[in-house]
Design a protein that fits this description.
Length: about 425
């Protein structure tokens, strides 16, 4: 039997959760992301806001210019993660394999459960009904013969729709005269290259396969396939050990010139990264530091061959790299582990950093002193609230508080 794949995609997920929890927001243009006076972008927005031309990833100030009467809110990521877990529990009931793409979307292989297209329709409608009845949220569903087609189908009848693409020919008929950006993997840069040589539609792309490969290489080969509806990829469940890196970063609401503050933020980020790595049973052999300066120039520095897997070593390596970069105002800072592999030994009990397994006694003492210093420096109980720092909302609020109360040390000049 040929595979039958369902793609489920929530409708304006973050905004819908907020509207569900506060019905007074219903029917109003709602934008989730930064506030108008802050730097940042729109994470998602309600369909009422989209009528004003607002969309995800739009600069928040442009969103405010287009819709000044709208409601702007910070995201509550930990609430969305909890809802996401409930969603995937419902969806996974109907699939032999489920591939999570994001908090609010997934591919489901329903070939065995559905048996045929009529069975797939029943599953799709059941998923929509349970999502609505049990969680008070709306989702769009695509049913198709391939992952690419299923993703396309879920976009066709948003919000709350269900659409089928049963064959490669049906896929081609749907997209043939659409812009090339309709094809999976074609972003702004790839589209610009195609536009520059007069390839604007899928039909034009099909007529010039050699030129597409010359322009885009392997991506071009892939596009030549899916332009004919060819996609044999399977639904592959996500496995943590297949991740390329695990990281955490924060963007400051105002540029930071105190590099001593950046070092303190790196400690919090290092704690979060190690916590996440240990939850999925991974450790990294390398660490990467990321900085974005005020002029939007980003740099990375990496070091491989970590001597151990402790948070102290991760932090110390990140700090050493930070001290070697050019000292200019910083907009964003991040740290990540790379060269990941599964833990050879037992997982660390990260919930209690005063007695973490696998750490040398001296490292335990060093970590305790660092946390105590942060608590004294910023008048915050870091030791008693480490578990809360792993929550995205709490981490960002804490970092912003620290930024407003920086160490009393000399800042670097704000000039280039």
């Amino acid at each position: 039997m040929k595979q039958i794949i369902i793609h489920v995609d929530m409708d304006a997920f973050y905004a819908s959760v907020e509207i569900r929890d506060d019905p007074s927001l219903r029917g109003k243009p709602l934008m989730i992301g930064s506030l108008p006076h802050e730097r940042g972008v729109v994470a998602t927005c309600s369909y009422e806001a989209r009528k004003y031309g607002v969309h995800s990833a739009m600069n928040i100030k442009e969103a405010y210019r287009r819709c000044p009467q709208g409601i702007f809110m910070h995201p509550h990521f930990d609430k969305y993660k909890a809802v996401s877990h409930q969603l995937h529990e419902i969806w996974n009931t109907y699939a032999t394999a489920s591939q999570t793409i994001a908090l609010d979307e997934a591919y489901l292989d329903v070939t065995e459960q559905a048996k045929d297209w009529e069975g797939a329709r029943r599953i799709a409608y059941t998923i929509q009904q349970r999502t609505r009845d049990e969680l008070g949220l709306s989702c769009s569903v695509g049913i198709a013969y391939s992952k690419t087609a299923a993703k396309m189908a879920s976009e066709e009848k948003k919000p709350g729709g269900c659409y089928e693409i049963p064959t490669p020919q049906a896929f081609v008929d749907l997209i043939l005269d659409r812009d090339v950006r309709v094809l999976y993997t074609v972003g702004a840069k790839s589209a610009e290259k195609l536009y520059a040589v007069g390839i604007h539609t899928v039909r034009q792309l099909r007529e010039r396969p050699e030129e597409v490969v010359r322009l885009l290489g392997k991506q071009g080969q892939w596009l030549n396939q899916i332009a004919y509806g060819i996609d044999d990829r399977k639904v592959v469940p996500y496995r943590p050990e297949e991740a390329h890196s695990i990281g955490r970063e924060v963007t400051f609401q105002q540029d930071v010139t105190h590099f001593a503050l950046l070092e303190d933020v790196l400690l919090l980020l290092s704690l979060c990264v190690k916590h996440r790595a240990e939850r999925v049973g991974l450790h990294g052999k390398g660490v990467t530091l990321k900085l974005t300066y005020a002029n939007m120039k980003s740099i990375t520095r990496s070091h491989s061959g970590l001597t151990d897997h402790s948070v102290v070593t991760l932090y110390q390596e990140a700090v050493q790299m930070l001290r070697g970069v050019e000292k200019r105002p910083v907009r964003l800072i991040g740290v990540s582990l790379h060269n990941l592999s599964q833990e050879a030994d037992g997982q660390l009990t990260f919930e209690d950093f005063t007695q973490p397994d696998g750490m040398k006694p001296e490292q335990e003492r060093v970590l305790s002193r660092m946390i105590a210093r942060l608590s004294e420096q910023y008048h915050l109980d870091f030791a008693g609230n480490l578990h809360r720092l792993y929550e995205t909302d709490t981490l960002h609020k804490t970092v912003e508080y620290m930024r407003k109360h920086p160490p009393m040390l000399t800042a670097y000049p704000s000039g280039e």
